[in-house]
Amino acid sequence: MGKGIPLNDEDRIPWLCNLHDILLRDVATGQHVVLACSALKKAYRDILIRGKDGVPPKCDEVGKEGKVAEVKLLVVHLSGSFEVISGRLLKRTEHFMPPELLQSQFDTLEPPSAPENFIQISVDKNLSEIIATIMKALK
Fold this sequence. Notes:
globular, about 40% helix, two-stranded parallel sheet, mainly alpha, 2 strands
């Protein structure tokens, strides 16, 4: 992305599997974990929850009952118009993602839907409202 080339599934899957493994490790030690990432597709969010069969081997850890180890995940979908998000992105300095890639992110986006465990919050809300909404959903 830093070179102006959007990531594809082949680029993202190993990274998502690594995040799944980190989530499993941290949750197993009793930690409450917040992970911020752009899991734009349902398949990406599924990998964060269950891992991905065969990619890479570490990602498909098996639990005690012979089942794939799952992570309980609440997806917080921050939704906003292209114009609003583009305007904010243009104000960032030294960010790895060039603004020219934003359209590819919108094109890839599969917003969460039932039966996924998610909440949707507008980026038009102020930060304290966003935080309060997330905290309420976590209780």
